[in-house]
């Protein structure tokens, strides 16, 4: 990613209003409205010779034997060798307030040495939550987007053939009990905790209801009492409240991904007066050996390789010291760094140096 692209992203963000209003439902969660993670272990059968090697994947062999014994088949034989079955982990997300009989999607991933799940079918797999209880049961044909093919001298793989998905592949068998109608208070949890944002949410709720029913408990929670006109109707209260708009606040932060060279800076980033100079010393060595041959019919000449070396040095002498005044905005900062011809990698070092000098009024987070 070039410095010009980063500058473009910054300028496009500055083009938006400084006070961008967001709905409460987009910046906060309501108590009880949450997902639950499910996981299960199962077997996929019907593979075309791309399953686990039972001699290497002991868990697949034992699972197969156990399943067959439950079906009344004695399969405890040392010569049991099949290559069309694979042990898999099954994962899913149980949406909030899912009722018995509803269906959810599941993801399938191999844990053995199976090479492809194409054409496989997942057998009945219980899906458990963190409390160890079964909340859903999954089964069905596995849809795989990736594939692999190989011949005697070449092979090709596209996507990930060892992972798949079953749309509506699990049936919910147990509900997560939580009743909202009788609630006397509701907690609003901010996704990005902030004192100012929590206070603004409470003020917006109180202004809408017309009485002080909401107050911030901490930077991440706003507690809201159910008013008398919403008694036994907490759902209606949440429906009205979640559409209110507030201006979320955030701290000044610079996020840096050193692996990819990506830099993201918030609009509140400010710097004090600072002078910046940047230059790289680049040395390029080019070897162009030449062959020297003796004259025709010479008696003592020999063919020899003569080295030819060319050295180029670029010390970036044309770059000058740039001064940035106190309180410059994000646009000024990016424009000044771009004027120096700074690339993303060098910009990371410069921002860290400005922070070390105490001139950058923002937090730097390296991911």
Automatic annotation (TrEMBL):
Main location: other
Assembly and binders: The basal body constitutes a major portion of the flagellar organelle and consists of four rings (L,P,S, and M) mounted on a central rod.
Domain of life: Bacteria
PANTHER family hit by this protein: FLAGELLAR P-RING PERIPLASMIC PROTEIN FLGI (PTHR30381), FLAGELLAR P-RING PROTEIN (PTHR30381:SF0)
Keyword RNA-binding on entry: no
GO biological process: bacterial-type flagellum-dependent cell motility
Biological role stated in the UniProt entry: Assembles around the rod to form the L-ring and probably protects the motor/basal body from shearing forces during rotation.
InterPro entries hit by this protein: Flag_FlgI (IPR001782)
Protein name: Flagellar P-ring protein
UniProt entry keywords in alphabetical sequence: Bacterial flagellum, Cell projection, Cilium, Flagellum, Periplasm, Signal
Recorded family membership: Belongs to the FlgI family.
Subcellular location: Bacterial flagellum basal body
GO molecular function, one term: structural molecule activity
GO cellular component: bacterial-type flagellum basal body, distal rod, P ring; outer membrane-bounded periplasmic space
A Pfam family: FlgI
Signal peptide: 1-20
Gene that produces this protein: flgI
